[in-house]
Amino acid sequence: MSNLQQAQASINSVFEGFAHHRRRYALRELRRHANPMELADLADELAVRENETPLTDVPADEVKRIYMSLYHTHIPKLEAADLVRYNQEQDSVALAEQAEYIEQHQEYLTID
Asked: Residues in domain DUF7344 (predicted)?
């Protein structure tokens, strides 16, 4: 693979990382926290944001659905794009260094 092809693949994976609103919300929440977050806590934060209601008013099955989508779909895509680091043993996730740079340019991407 040429350098140009590698650069294009990297750019494509970054844009795929930003393609879904849940991944953008997750990146924002991770940026707000200086330390890694447990995936369950991230799911709670996204449930509040997506439902625009306090966590106590979000049904437990909705929070679980969000957790499962993060675990099986969104975190792996963000990790593949080198935007987050996931720790399986601690079930925690943190921003990767590249994500901080990209977040500075997020204004150029469509944000919900």
From this structure: 16-93
pLDDT 10s per residue in the chain (112 long)? 665 545 454 565 666 667 788 998 998 899 888 789 999 999 999 999 999 999 999 999 999 999 999 999 999 999 988 889 999 999 999 998 876 656 555 555 444 4
Residue environment code for 11-50, b if the CB has 16+ CB neighbours within 10 A, otherwise e: eeebeebbebebbbbbbebbeeeeebbebebbbbbbbbbe
pTM of the model: 0.79
Q: What's 77's domain CATH number?
A: 1.10.10.10
